[in-house]
Amino acid sequence: MPLLCAALGHKPDKTRVWNDNVDFRAPCIRCGAPMIPDERKSWRRYEQETDGISSRKQHRHDKGGDL
Fold this sequence. Notes:
15% helix, 2 helices, 67 residues
C-alpha cells in the first residue's frame, strides 16, 4: 500500500464508479485499489475473501472480466 494511502486512507475516484450487480465500485484515486461503499455511506477497500460473491460482475478492465 502506498504511503499516502497508509497515512490518509484510500480515496475513491468517483469519476470512475461502476455497478458490479451488487454494489457500486471505484478504484482508489491514489493507488488504484478497488473500493466499495460500506454501511456508513463511506467507502472501503474491496476484499475478495469477504466481499467476493458469484453474482458480482467483474469490470471489463479486470483480468478475465466480463465485457
